[in-house]
Specification:
This protein has a 14-stranded antiparallel β-barrel. The termini are close together. The longest helix has 15 residues. It is built from seven helices and 16 strands. The chain is mainly β. A hairpin with a 4-residue loop joins strand 3 and strand 4.
Length: about 425
């Protein structure tokens, strides 16, 4: 079995590179959880590992899942819209109203874990970490600019954690993942921003096709089981995934196209309330403040670049989306009904990272959803396979503000549906 590791790594990574990427947003632009089983429980996974994709939540957890392979897909449906103008007219009380098209996305995920011996385990996973997509037609930012009938962006991120975990004793395990990252970005219809004179490089602001970025980071994790294995604790920290720059969009993103993936950390606890019932809770902190293109403020009642040339789009101190750091709370219940059926339910909450006065730029990335409700199940037809499904509903959330500089008023909103399906092989 040990000789399978190189083959599994090569096949999994090659398959990941061949898969089409899909964009989504839930906790900011991070996925709410990794794997269908975790999604069914509100995204928990720091202290309760259920499959090979759990390495993306806590690398130490793979010591508990055994030798297995998991392959899944999510059918993701984000419904988002934006409006600018004044509350006096237009759909919903605004002028310039537009609903984003491209409503359905297929998001893949796969993983493999393998115990090397009683203490050491290895694994690899491929996960869609996050992203954002909008496609508005008509373009409410056009304002007469030519060649800008459609407005929107597409950001997608894929992570490949390659993991090793080790049990130091009967209670504790530690894990580390080398995290490889790939992302893609494109923008259309932002010519007006160039006409406003707020970009340092208008030729690399918009309509330059899809640009790709690669990079790497690290994730560390700990898992501890106590009280006759009835209580499990977990902790994890992920560094930034340091990415190469989007050179085609060096006039849009701060730092000449810099767009790293944020660092984050989380704590978790899982309690076996009965022999059949486990209750798990995670709290996660996503540090968007470490990504200038995401965190630095954009237009509000004033346009920073109008008075401070150092804040022109694309410069180190350039305007961004104005996002705050985000704390996410995840709660899930896992009930093993019998040897064939396991039932799940969960709740996930993260306050929108977008301040209300930053909605102008965030019409392009309306990551407003806060409350997520989930259910799911696993069916085990035999001891060597499993079918898992989950459904997530993110409730509609609206943000708006008036008295803005580029537009009088702006409003953004989003709600989401997600259906996850996975098949697992247990060896």
């Amino acid at each position: 079995m040990k000789t399978l590791i190189p083959k599994i790594l090569v096949v999994s990574i090659a398959a990941a590179c061949a898969l089409p990427l899909a964009a989504h947003a839930t906790n900011g632009y991070f996925a709410p959880g990794y794997g269908a089983a975790a999604i069914g429980m509100g995204g928990v996974g720091v202290a309760f590992a259920q499959d090979s994709l759990s390495a993306a939540a806590n690398p130490a957890g793979i010591v508990d899942v055994g030798m297995r392979a998991d392959l899944g897909f999510g059918l993701f449906n984000p419904e988002r819209s934006a409006a600018i103008g004044t509350p006096a007219g237009g759909a919903g009380g605004f002028n310039g109203y537009s609903e984003s098209s491209n409503r359905y996305y297929l998001i893949p995920g796969m993983g493999y874990t393998m115990p090397w011996d009683e203490k050491l385990s290895f694994g690899v996973a491929v996960i869609g970490n996050g992203g954002m997509n909008t496609t508005y037609k008509p373009n409410f930012f056009a304002l007469g600019a030519t060649g800008s009938e459609t407005l929107g962006i597409n950001l997608v991120q894929m992570l490949i954690p390659i993991t090793a975990a080790y049990k130091t004793d009967e209670h504790n395990a530690f894990g580390v993942s080398a995290v490889l990252g790939v992302q893609a970005f494109s923008a259309r219809g932002l010519q007006t921003f160039g006409l406003f004179g707020i970009s340092s490089d208008p030729a690399h602001l918009t309509n330059n096709g899809t640009d790709y970025s690669q990079g790497a980071g690290v994730r560390l994790g700990w898992r501890g089981k106590y009280f006759d294995d009835k209580v499990t604790f977990g902790a994890t920290y992920a560094s930034k995934v340091y990415m190469s720059r989007f050179s085609k969009y060096s006039g849009l993103f701060a730092g000449g196209g810099s767009f790293d993936i944020p660092s984050n950390y989380a704590l978790g606890i899982a309690v076996k309330a009965t022999p059949a019932t486990t209750i798990a809770f995670d709290v996660e902190r996503i540090l968007y403040s470490g990504i200038p293109s995401v965190h630095q403020r954009g237009p509000s009642s004033t346009i920073p670049a109008a008075t401070d040339p150092s804040t022109l789009l694309g410069l180190d101190n350039g305007m961004g989306f104005g996002w705050n750091n985000q704390t996410v709370y995840k709660l899930g219940v896992n009930y093993k009904y019998n040897d064939f059926w396991t039932l799940r339910a969960g709740y996930n909450y993260g306050k929108s990272p977008i301040p209300d006065d930053q909605v102008t730029f965030n019409t392009l990335a309306p990551a407003t959803v806060e409350k997520h409700y989930t259910i799911g199940f696993t069916y085990n037809p035999n001891k060597s396979s499993a079918i898992t499904m989950a459904y997530l509903r993110a409730a509609n959330n609206v943000q708006q503000s008036c008295g803005l500089a580029l537009v009088t008023c702006a409003r953004i909103q989003m709600y989401q549906n997600d259906i996850e399906l996975a098949y697992s092989w247990k060896f």
